[in-house]
């Protein structure tokens, strides 16, 4: 959903000019009117120069780079250092050197700071810096919402003390493979993995912590150079457009440079409509002029290839090169900007070094460093802090049909019938804001949706679900139960005068729930109980939109930074996590509304680190254009790399009308997004999959059916992600980490380890250039044609399919009966598609459970490992518990059959296939062009829940 | 008796086996999911093999319905979901047989199309046989539809009859009206000439008298306006001079963009001035007082516009010029601008507002002499009005009939009955209305035009389009798709907006009820006969007139 263009956005007349102009004649005025018409959407959002703390920190960086032999004015007091129970503490002193003295004139620095370095049991290291004695308490409450559990200190470390260079070193990790090497003056921490420098804090000397001060501290500012003025810009109040940020706490921003030595590519920090490998924003030849910005915003028709902030923020960055990899998580939910610069290596490496500069407006400096050693380890370490993706409701990885708006119950029934008639599977039908009674969430328009039970039942009979939208803006209306209760319980966000804040959103005058209030979450969750949310059933799930939050009348279309939350927390300090807190409360509501806990399904537009624990996200209000389609891949890959794997982009594009070819190509690619939903704007033409006629209907049907045939594979990937925190769709480099050719590849991606997907993002293209990584074969998904890696090859991509290849060495489980919905596939048999590598081996897994409850966490699931080795395919259980028979799911489903096994990539013809001792007739042929033999074992009749073997000879 | 006792068991066995054979033919011979008419396609060959229906493969007959998909076309699994692409036959005894996709076999859903529940036989889902019940309801519904259709067809025949008769009627009427055109046209022309003459006579007869009075009336206004024009012209010339001097004297080496902008703007102004064809007015004195006054007003507004433009140029420079250059020419121009801004306002006040120089009404000053002319003129005007009324009535009549005759009322003229009939539909918020073949609107406190009839969609004469309605904010022009279904009355049954600003009206009407085949011809024949008679009668009547 987007902001309906707002009437109040027209520019007000310039003061002073009006009275004089009356002297002249009416035609003069008509000229001015013409000038006012062209509106640039960028104007709604701040540039760095319009943001005080961004200007101040960037100016500091400029000062540093413009000062010869710049040294950080911070030093660590050696006598203060203490290392106890895995925590090193010490005093940090701000002592300006001659080179940095001019920067001190900012007057916003305190002399005394503390530093803490926590060695954690996950091999991660936490570094915190704060004022020793702040005049105003800084917000430090983020961990309760972000971290999944209390942190545990490591016991595996050795303190080496000071070496001859005066450096203080701690070795840590199970093999003591990692080191933190601390320099006192100027202050710096260098992290080494196996002795190799991998990540350095404050190497560039950009550490800066503004003291949270009171107005009387302000130094005399009469004579200032331009640089000094920039170093002090907007410390005490700041105007953007017509709205003034009152900044009652004054400046409290901080910044730090984080260097990735000899690592050229860094990834992450979503959400931006930008490239996978992040672009440079500083230094000679910088690709962007502006830093990457993290500030959750409702951006109307966002621009492509821009570091502008979008709906979500995850301050996690991964640096990766051929021989080292490192991650950093900057735990802060205030507005944050990140500059990226590539500089010459100091170690003599041919690779450049990436230096990043992070600065946030409020809170405390609190970051985590992950050294792997592999990128997979980093995801394990990072997700042990912020959580892995929750195992979703299994229906939610099917196809979702959405539009703003399906206008009535009858409309819903008709669209549902369209899917029946055209035999297109789908799982969920969505209702946007118009389904409510006057944009009061948790209600139904009584005329258009007179019987929501009946409507949901109609769909549920075919295994289908519904989703309704529930947004965080609450219509101001005493007669509306949500508004009344939240007012009575004082659960709304306040303005800077501590009066209830009211702003404008869909329902008109609205208020926002304050999730910083500890009572708000449970109260909000309780609204989802069936007796409160009238007309809801257990097949109704939720969509949280506009939760950046979007406030049409607010600065940058969001809540003012000086709005007040519970306990006098400024909105400024928690802005980026607001949407995730709302998402969390909604998810809690859905999981607790039944007698036994059920998994929620909630889609959210805003997100933060940890949002993966609550549900899925999507890339917001994109456009029906090839460019928006193309950028969806790097955006989703980036969101996945930041620990949030369950994401999608609106198939077809939200705004505008896609031509049928674009829509079809988008479905073909969207079938490989973790979250697969088509959505369309109110002003766009209807575009349900059958409306463009043939050949498009068949092509779209084929794309959606492909998704359904692979649901067992997808669900298994979700289970893996829920254990290891790895992305589900992965950049090529993730699977081929030492292949430098893949580091900036974003137009093709992997689904898990097994499938390579290349979206076709050019109109009329029927040939695609695909990069086949590695030295093994790749098998075309639909016809089994073989391509031999490595290298780029041109492959055909006719209108009815896009390039999808199965990687040698993998086994993909499928279900091939085309059913109406995922629910109806529960009893269907499986097909295993085996792609053997050059050693004749392959590996795959299959995970199954009831798809909706938490019984799996007690052991009621089926997890199988399939392995081909020495010409024998075996299936064995990976379940943790042994007592499988007591579980109802296992009991009911372990007799499901594997009916078909396809072996590809056999180097020799097969004369005999023996299943558990009995010989079997098979189909087989020699694929001469592909230099392989193929065998199909039909009627295999093997139980999914039992161990068995199939041997080929 | 004895014979009997021997024979009976044999007979009984025979009878029994016959019964079994019959049962086999009707049920067991066709594999599950195959309809009786397709049973012959599912017969094994002499070695007990069977070929996929597309001929792509031969498989053992035992592999038919063995829950494993062998054939590309899915034909080997008509009774299981293994292929999912074939048809599963539900006998639905008590209702109508139907085919469902085999992908819906054993999918846990009791398909409505399969009321006998035969689609779910794997024991996971129990589907009761509800065919008797469903069949009864369906038959009832069929009866209801049938009776609506019968009644609808009867009404539609009436529509058709009316439509055909009406067409003849209109054609005749058109002819009549056309024959009157020349006559009324002539009368109108005569009356117009007479009226013009009378008016000229009046004007001529009272001219000097009226002109004298008017002159007296406008004299002070003309004087005032002349003064204003003079002042404004001086101001304009002063500003022009200032700019001209700025242009010539400013220091070009400074490259002050503000100054340059103003100078080039001035150049543009001069060029534009040159392009304007000076309207050489007649000597003011020879004009009537009214035209004199108008000419002065026009001239003034041209000059004021010039002043506005010139001041804008100067003001633009004044705001942005570089004060450090101290270019005297620029400073002089700025000074002039400042002075102008201070004095112009107050001098404008002296002017009073132009808008307030309102032209007074002409006074009725007719002398008795003129009075006579005026009376003659008035009565000639009356005659003219009368003739004009008659003429336009005939023309309107022709237009209206032509419009109706040009309309596409369907091959049998069914819809003539409904032309210009209007229907309302009340929603909670709005009342929607459509006048068939006319306009559609949405009304609440105000009315929004949704579109004008633009034609039929498709060839079935049951969907009308109304297009070109009021434009939506940020969207298309509104339009209505009006879909008709058979009913015994004509009324709107629902209005929805499936896409923004594209409305869907559902209208029930006898006009689309199917007329049983065969009946049409007979009916038409009768009607044609009737119409010919009616037409003839009509013509006769007309002749008698």
Structural features:
heterodimer, A: 953 residues, alpha+beta, Immunoglobulin-like, TIM Barrel, 10-stranded antiparallel beta sheet, 9-stranded antiparallel beta sheet, 18 helices, 19% helix, globular, disordered N terminus, B: 545 residues, 8-stranded mixed beta sheet, two-stranded antiparallel ribbon, 12 strands, flat, Glyco_hydro_b (chain A), endoplasmic reticulum (chain A), glycosidase (chain A)
Structure description:
The complex is a heterodimer of chains A (about 950) and B (about 550). By secondary structure, chain A is of the alpha+beta class. Among the domains of chain A are: about 350 residues, glycosyl hydrolase (family 31) (Immunoglobulin-like, Sandwich); about 140 residues, TIM Barrel (Alpha-Beta Barrel); about 120 residues, Immunoglobulin-like (Sandwich), CATH 2.60.40.1180. Chain A is built from 18 helices and 53 strands. In chain A, a hairpin with a 3-residue loop joins strand 36 and strand 37. In chain A, helix 11 packs parallel to helix 12 and helix 14 runs parallel beside helix 15. The N and C termini of chain A lie far apart (about 60 Å). Helix content of chain B is about 50%, strand content about 15%. Chain B is built from seven helices and twelve strands. Chain B has an eight-stranded mixed sheet. In chain B, strands 1-2 form a two-stranded antiparallel sheet. In chain B, helix 2 packs across helix 4 and helix 2 crosses helix 6. The longest helix of chain B is centred in the middle third of the chain and has 119 residues. Classes of the chains: A alpha+beta (about 950), B alpha+beta (about 550). Chains A and B meet through loops of A and helix 4, helix 5 and strand 11 of B.
Describe how the helices and strands are arranged.
The complex is a heterodimer of chains A (953) and B (545).
Chain A: H1 17-21, H2 26-37, H3 52-66, E1 74-76, E2 82-84, E3 87-94, H4 101-104, E4 112-119, E5 125-131, H5 143-146, E6 157-162, E7 168-172, E8 178-183, E9 188-193, E10 196-201, E11 208-209, H6 226-231, E12 238-240, E13 243-245, E14 254-260, E15 265-268, E16 292-294, E17 316-320, E18 325-330, E19 336-343, E20 353-360, E21 365-370, H7 375-386, E22 399-401, H8 409-421, E23 428-431, H9 452-460, E24 465-469, E25 473-475, H10 481-488, E26 503-505, E27 508-512, H11 520-526, E28 540-544, E29 564-565, E30 569-570, H12 571-592, E31 602-604, E32 616-618, H13 626-641, E33 647-648, H14 660-670, E34 676-678, H15 696-709, H16 711-724, E35 729-731, H17 732-735, E36 749-751, E37 755-757, E38 767-772, E39 777-780, E40 786-788, E41 791-796, E42 804-807, E43 810-814, E44 830-835, E45 842-848, E46 862-869, E47 872-877, H18 888-893, E48 897-906, E49 913-915, E50 918-920, E51 923-927, E52 932-943, E53 948-952
Parallel strand pairs in A: 22-23, 22-34, 23-24, 24-28, 28-31, 31-32, 32-33, 44-48
Antiparallel strand pairs in A: 1-3, 2-3, 3-4, 4-5, 5-21, 6-7, 7-8, 8-9, 9-10, 10-14, 11-14, 12-13, 14-20, 15-17, 16-19, 17-18, 18-21, 19-20, 25-27, 26-27, 29-30, 35-36, 36-37, 37-42, 38-41, 39-40, 39-42, 43-44, 45-46, 46-47, 47-53, 48-52, 49-50, 49-53, 51-52
Helix pairs in contact in A: 8-9, 11-12, 14-15
Chain B: H1 2-28, E1 49-51, E2 58-60, E3 87-90, E4 98-101, H2 131-249, H3 257-275, H4 289-320, H5 328-351, H6 368-406, E5 422-426, E6 431-435, E7 439-443, E8 447-456, E9 463-468, E10 479-486, E11 491-499, E12 502-509, H7 519-544
Parallel strand pairs in B: 10-12
Antiparallel strand pairs in B: 1-2, 3-4, 5-6, 6-7, 7-8, 8-9, 9-10, 11-12
């Amino acid at each position: 959903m987007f902001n309906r263009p707002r009437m109040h956005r027209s520019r007000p007349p310039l003061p002073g000019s009006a009275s004089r102009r009356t002297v002249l004649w009416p035609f003069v005025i008509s000229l001015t009117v013409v000038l006012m018409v062209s509106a640039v959407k960028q104007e709604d959002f701040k540039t760095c120069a319009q943001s005080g703390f961004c200007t101040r920190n960037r100016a500091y960086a400029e000062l540093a780079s413009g000062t010869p032999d710049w040294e950080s004015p911070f030093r660590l007091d050696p006598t203060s250092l203490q290392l106890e129970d895995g925590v090193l503490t010490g005093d940090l002193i701000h002592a300006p050197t001659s080179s940095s003295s001019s920067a001190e004139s900012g007057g916003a620095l305190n002399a005394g700071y503390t530093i803490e370095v926590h060695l954690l049991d996950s091999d991660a290291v936490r570094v915190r810096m704060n004022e020793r004695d702040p005049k105003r308490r800084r917000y430090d409450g983020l961990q309760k919402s972000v971290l999944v559990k209390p942190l545990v200190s490591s016991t595996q470390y050795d303190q080496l003390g000071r070496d001859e260079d005066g450096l203080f070193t701690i070795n840590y990790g199970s093999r003591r493979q990692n080191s933190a090497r601390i320099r006192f003056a100027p202050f710096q921490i260098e992290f080494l993995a196996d002795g190799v420098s991998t990540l350095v804090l404050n190497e560039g000397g950009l550490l800066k912590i503004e003291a949270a001060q009171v107005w009387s501290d302000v130094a005399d500012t009469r004579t200032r150079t331009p640089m000094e003025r920039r170093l002090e810009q907007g410390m005490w109040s700041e105007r953007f457009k017509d709205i003034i940020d009152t900044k009652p706490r004054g400046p409290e921003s901080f910044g730090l440079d984080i260097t990735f030595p000899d690592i050229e590519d860094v990834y992450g920090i979503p959400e931006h409509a930008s490239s996978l490998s992040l672009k440079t924003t500083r230094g000679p030849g910088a690709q962007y002029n502006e830093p990457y910005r993290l500030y959750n915003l409702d951006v109307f028709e966002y621009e492509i290839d821009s570091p502008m902030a979008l709906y979500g923020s995850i301050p996690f960055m991964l640096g990766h090169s051929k021989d080292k990899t490192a991650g950093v998580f900057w735990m802060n939910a205030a507005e944050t900007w990140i500059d990226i610069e590539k500089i010459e290596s100091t170690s003599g490496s041919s690779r450049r070094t990436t230096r990043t500069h992070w600065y946030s407006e409020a809170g405390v400096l609190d970051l985590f460093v992950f050294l792997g050693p592999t990128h997979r380890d980093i995801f394990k370490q990072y997700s042990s802090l912020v959580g892995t993706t929750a195992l979703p409701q299994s229906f939610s990885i099917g196809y979702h049909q959405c539009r703003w708006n399906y206008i009535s119950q009858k409309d819903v029934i008709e669209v549902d019938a369209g899917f029946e008639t055209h035999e297109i599977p789908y799982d969920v039908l969505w209702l946007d804001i118009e389904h409510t009674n006057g944009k009061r969430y948790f209600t139904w328009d009584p005329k258009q949706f007179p019987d929501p039970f009946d409507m949901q039942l109609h769909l549920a009979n075919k295994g289908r679900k519904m989703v309704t939208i529930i947004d965080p803006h609450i219509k101001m209306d005493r007669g509306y139960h949500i508004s009344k209760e939240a007012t009575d319980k004082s659960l709304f966000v306040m303005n800077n005068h501590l009066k209830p804040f009211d702003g404008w959103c869909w329902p008109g005058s609205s208020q926002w729930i304050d999730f910083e209030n500890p009572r708000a979450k449970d109260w909000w969750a309780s609204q989802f109980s069936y007796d409160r949310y009238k007309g809801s059933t257990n097949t109704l799930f939720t969509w949280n939109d506009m939760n950046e939050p979007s406030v049409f009348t607010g600065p940058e279309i969001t809540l003012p930074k000086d709005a007040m939350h519970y306990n006098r927390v400024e909105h400024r300090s928690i802005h980026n996590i607001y949407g995730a807190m709302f998402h969390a409360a909604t998810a809690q509501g859905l999981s607790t509304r039944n007698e036994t806990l059920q998994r929620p399904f909630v889609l959210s537009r805003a997100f933060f680190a940890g949002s993966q624990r609550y549900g899925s996200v999507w890339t917001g209000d994109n456009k029906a254009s090839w460019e928006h389609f193309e950028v969806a891949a790097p955006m989703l890959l980036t969101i996945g790399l930041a620990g949030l794997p369950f994401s999608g982009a609106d198939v077809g594009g939200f705004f505008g009308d896609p031509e049928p070819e674009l829509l079809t190509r988008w479905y073909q690619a969207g079938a490989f997004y973790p979250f697969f939903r088509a959505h369309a704007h109110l002003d766009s033409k209807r575009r349900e999959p059958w409306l463009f006629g043939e050949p498009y209907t068949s092509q779209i049907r084929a794309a959606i059916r492909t998704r359904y045939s692979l649901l067992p594979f997808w669900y298994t990937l979700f289970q893996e992600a829920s254990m290891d925190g790895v992305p589900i769709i992965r950049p090529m480099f993730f699977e081929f980490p030492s292949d430098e050719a893949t580091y900036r590849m974003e137009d093709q991606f992997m689904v898990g380890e097994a499938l390579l997907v290349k979206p076709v993002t050019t109109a009329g293209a029927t040939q695609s250039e695909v990069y086949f990584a590695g030295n093994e074969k790749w098998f075309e998904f639909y016809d089994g044609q073989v391509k031999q890696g490595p290298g780029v090859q041109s492959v055909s991509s006719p209108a009815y399919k896009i390039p999808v290849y199965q990687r040698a060495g993998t086994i993909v489980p499928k279900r091939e009966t085309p059913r109406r919905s995922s629910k109806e596939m529960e009893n269907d048999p499986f097909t295993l598609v085996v792609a053997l590598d050059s050693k004749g081996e392959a590996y795959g897994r299959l995970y199954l459970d009831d798809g909706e409850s938490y019984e799996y966490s007690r052991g009621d699931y089926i997890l199988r490992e399939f392995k081909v080795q020495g010409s024998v395919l075996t299936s064995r259980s990976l379940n943790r518990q042994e007592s499988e028979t007591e579980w109802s799911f296992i009991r009911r489903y372990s007799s499901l059959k594997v009916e078909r096994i396809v072996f590809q990539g056999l180097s020799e013809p097969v004369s005999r296939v023996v299943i558990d001792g009995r010989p079997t007739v098979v189909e087989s042929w020699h694929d001469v062009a592909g230099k392989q033999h193929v065998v199909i074992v039909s009627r295999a009749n093997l139980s999914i829940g039992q161990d068995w073997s199939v041997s080929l000879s | 008796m004895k014979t009997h006792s021997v024979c009976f068991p044999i007979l009984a066995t025979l009878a029994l086996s016959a019964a079994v054979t019959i049962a086999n033919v009707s049920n067991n011979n066709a594999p599950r999911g195959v309809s009786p008419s397709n049973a012959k396609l599912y017969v094994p060959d002499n070695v007990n093999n069977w070929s996929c229906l597309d001929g792509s493969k031969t498989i053992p007959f035992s592999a038919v319905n063995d829950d494993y998909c062998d054939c590309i076309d899915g034909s080997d699994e008509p009774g299981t979901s293994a292929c999912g692409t074939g048809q599963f036959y539900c006998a639905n005894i008590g209702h109508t047989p139907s085919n469902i996709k085999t992908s819906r076999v054993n999918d846990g859903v009791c398909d409505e199309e399969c009321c006998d529940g035969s689609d779910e036989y794997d024991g996971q889902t129990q589907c009761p046989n509800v065919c008797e019940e469903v069949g009864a309801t369906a038959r009832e519904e069929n009866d209801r539809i049938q009776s609506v259709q019968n009644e609808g067809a009867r009404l539609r025949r009436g529509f058709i009859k009316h439509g055909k008769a009406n067409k003849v009627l209109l054609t005749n009427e058109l002819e009549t009206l056309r024959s009157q055109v020349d006559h009324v046209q002539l009368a109108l022309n005569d009356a117009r000439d007479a009226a013009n003459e009378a008016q000229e006579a009046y004007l001529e007869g009272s001219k000097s008298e009226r002109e004298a009075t008017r002159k007296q009336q406008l004299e002070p206004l003309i004087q005032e306006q002349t003064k204003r024009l003079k002042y404004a012209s001086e101001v304009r010339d002063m500003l022009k001079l200032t700019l001209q001097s700025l242009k010539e004297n400013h220091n070009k080496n400074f490259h002050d963009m503000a100054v340059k902008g103003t100078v080039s703007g001035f150049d543009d102004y001069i060029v534009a001035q040159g392009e304007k064809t000076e309207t050489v007015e007649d000597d003011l004195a020879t004009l009537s007082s009214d035209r004199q006054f108008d000419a002065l007003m026009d001239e003034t507004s041209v000059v004021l516009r010039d002043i506005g433009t010139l001041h804008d140029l100067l003001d633009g420079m004044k705001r942005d010029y570089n004060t450090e250059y101290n270019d005297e020419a620029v400073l002089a121009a700025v000074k002039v601008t400042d002075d102008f801004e201070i004095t112009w306002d107050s001098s404008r006040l002296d002017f009073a507002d132009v808008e307030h120089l309102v032209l007074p009404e002409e006074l009725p000053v007719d002398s008795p002499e003129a009075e006579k002319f005026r009376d003659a003129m008035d009565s000639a005007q009356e005659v003219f009005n009368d003739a004009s009324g008659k003429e336009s009535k005939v023309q309107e009549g022709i237009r209206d009939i032509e419009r109706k005759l040009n309309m596409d009322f369907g091959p049998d003229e069914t819809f003539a009955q409904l032309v210009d009939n209007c229907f309302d539909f009340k929603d909670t918020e709005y009342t929607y209305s459509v006048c068939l073949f006319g306009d559609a609107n949405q009304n609440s406190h105000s009315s929004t035009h949704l579109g004008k009839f633009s034609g039929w969609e498709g060839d079935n004469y049951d969907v009308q389009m109304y297009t070109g309605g009021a434009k939506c904010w940020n969207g298309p022009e509104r339009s209505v798709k009006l879909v008709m279904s058979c009913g015994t009355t004509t009324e709107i049954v629902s209005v929805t907006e499936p896409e923004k600003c594209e409305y869907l009206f559902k209208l029930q009407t006898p006009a689309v009820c199917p007329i049983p085949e065969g009946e049409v011809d007979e009916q038409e024949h009768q009607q044609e006969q009737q119409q010919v008679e009616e037409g003839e009668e009509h013509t006769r009547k007309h002749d008698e007139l």
